[in-house]
Structure formats: C-alpha cells, structure tokens
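As a warm-up, study this chain.
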Amino acid sequence: MKLVKKILAICFLLFGIPLSAVIILELFSPKTAAKDKEDYVTALTIFTIPSTLIGGWLSWSLVQQNRNEKAFLIESEQKRLQLVFLELIEQNAGRITVLQLAKNAEISTQLAKQYLDEKAKELNATFEVNQEGNVLYHFS
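Now compare it with the structure written out below.
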C-alpha cells in the first residue's frame, strides 16, 4: 500500500506542478488571447490544482505514516528494554551490570550504560565496583 501511495503521489505531483507552472506562465503572458486565458484557468482549476493537492496530500500522509511507525518502533523497543531490565533486577536481587543488560536485551554496552544510568537516577540506585572492576548497579 505504501508503494502504491508513493507512486500515485509522484504521478500526481509530476503532472500537477509542471503543468500548473506552464499554465500560470501562459496566463500572465501578454501574447495570450482572452479566450485562451479562460481555457487555461479552466484547465488549471479542473486538472492541475487538484492533481497537485492530491499529490501533496498523499506525500504528507506518507510522511505522517513514517513518523507514526518510527514512534511505534521506539515505544516497542523501550517496553522490551524495560521488561528485560525488570526481569534481570528480579532474577539478581536488584543487582545488574551493564554487560548483563546489554547481553540480555541485545543492545550495545553504550546504550545499556546510558539506560542504567537513567534508571539509577530515577530509582536512586547505588553503585558498587566488583572484583573484575565492573560497575554493579544495585536497585533496592
């Protein structure tokens, strides 16, 4: 459906915009007869302006659809990350490392550290450094 919308939007815009430009140039040309100007206004009103508006509307709806899909994906990923985080906290009696979260959530260690730092501020977590030198977040 998205591909069909894209093709239609392109077709409508490629028809409407150039033809509108040509017709408008002819309308303002001093060499154009009065009867021809009436015909150009009719063509502009019936064909090119609606075509341009439909193409613009289809393009705008595609942009909105992409924004909504991205927002949905981000929200889904946040929920999944939250679930993994809570499961690890529950399994490990409130203790978690960056590596544990990164591994279980299948995200980068940088993203896991950023997420844990945010959660630590939000939930007033404490920090410990274990024997291997890793930071251990402790959520009570």
